[in-house]
Amino acid sequence: MKRVGIVALTLLALFVVGCSRTKIIPHDEAHMSGSSFLQSSVTVKAGQAVKFIDASDGAPHKLVIGTNGTWTATDGAPSQLNNSAGMSINPGQTIDVVFSTPGTYPVTCTVHPAMQLTVTVTP
After folding, report:
1. 61-67 and 41-45 as β-strands: parallel, antiparallel, unpaired?
2. Domain that residue 98 falls in
3. d(CA 61, CA 30)
4. Which helix (H) or strand (E) segment is 54 a member of?
């Protein structure tokens, strides 16, 4: 009887582990929901794009270089994000933004000031 219990627990553990749906997000993707980034940072090499992905059930966003919903002019940052108008992205949309200059760039949403993402660009 003890052996049957151990086998049952082992099978249950394998079922639970096998059924988990942990999504591994690639290091160059920035996923957004209604009012937040799903991760706090992404890392790319200079000249590589960050893929900004707004979930189909997300919300419209205006992304800029800066923090707390405020744009801050930053040398070397991509022009799409480095201006007060920012880059608009809508639910279900994906936009690639190339980061050419090594450095660390904060990205925020002017509509949702709590949205914060750090983009690290390596040489």
Report:
1. unpaired
2. 27-122
3. 13
4. strand 48-54
Residue type at position 22: T
Tokens representing 37?
């980034």
Please say whether the beta carbons of 26 and 94 come within 8 A: no
pTM given for the model:
0.80
Closest C-alpha to 90, from 59, 122, 118, 44: 59
Query: How many domains are contained in the chain?
Result: 1
| Predicted pLDDT at 1 | 53
Side-chain half-sphere exposure of 92, counting CA atoms within 13 A:
2
Give the span between the Cα atoms of 31 and 99, in whole angstroms: 17
